[in-house]
Design a protein that fits this description.
By secondary structure, the chain is α+β, with helices and mostly antiparallel strands. Helices cover 25% and strands 11% of the residues. It has a domain at 128-177: 2-Layer Sandwich (Alpha-Beta Plaits). A hairpin with a 2-residue loop joins β1 and β2. The model has no long low-confidence stretch (mean pLDDT 87).
Length: 238
């Protein structure tokens, strides 16, 4: 068994487990979008970022692809991690604002605005459709094409695939295909209809203090202390 520290607790992992699999085993929630238990890990959405290491050498890694290692020091909900996740949600919203899955993530993580130009490309390149077609349907009918800003998912040579069985698995698993509650003609890019309260412990402790979700999302874990009256106020009262 591999032993390491996660959120201040000693945990054990089987050989070959990732940080994400270990966290799920212990009931610790790490948000994911491109990850699916029945498919190979991809690490494309970057929502499952966690912070490993301590001090100035600490770094962010994708928990779905990073293996559990002996003596590792992991924190799943630091300020640095939350800010990175919010940035990724904003980027995905700019690409697919019509996705209910991404809108729900925005509400959950307190993303109230989107600072990027809306592109409405309706594909966040999570690769779920490519992997389910190849690994579960054994068809390999679609795949990634090009690189950089020209990267896309399509059939070979952009023509109708002879091996596609029209099973619909690619549409079933696609997060961008699940339409938001307001429909395709929503007034705003960010819905926030299911917005939760911001956790106050992030600003005080630099990370969430409750690890069993939705604990830590209530905003009541740190109470503001009442201000002490100054000496002048005491003299006036007297």
């Amino acid at each position: 068994m591999i032993k390491f520290i996660m959120n201040g607790l000693e945990v054990q992992a089987e050989e070959g487990w990732s940080i994400l699999e270990t966290a799920k085993f212990y009931g610790l929630e790490i948000p994911t979008l491109c990850y699916n238990e029945g498919l190979s890990p991809y690490g494309g959405c970057r929502l499952c970022l966690v912070e490993i290491g301590e001090g100035p050498r600490a770094k962010l890694v994708s928990s779905c692809t990073y293996p559990a290692e002996e003596g590792l020091f992991v924190r799943t909900d630091t300020n640095r991690v939350i800010k990175a996740r919010r940035m990724m949600i904003e980027l995905m919203l700019s690409v697919a604002p019509g996705s209910k899955v991404i809108q729900d993530l925005a509400s959950k993580f307190g993303v109230k605005q989107m600072r990027f130009e809306v592109r409405n490309e309706e594909c966040i390149l999570c690769g779920l459709c490519v992997r389910i077609c190849a690994e579960q349907m054994d068809a390999h009918a679609i795949g990634f094409q090009n690189r950089g800003h020209k990267k896309k998912i399509s059939t070979p040579f952009d023509i109708r695939s002879d091996v596609c069985r029209h099973c619909g698995a690619c549409m079933y698993i696609c997060p961008a295909c699940q339409l938001r509650c307001q429909g395709p003609d929503a007034d705003t890019a960010v819905c926030n209809a299911c917005l939760t309260m911001d956790p106050t412990c992030l600003d005080t402790y630099d990370e969430l203090q409750c690890w069993m979700y939705d604990a830590g999302k209530c905003g009541t874990c740190v109470q503001e202390k009442p201000e002490k009256p100054n000496s002048e106020d005491n003299e006036k009262t007297a």
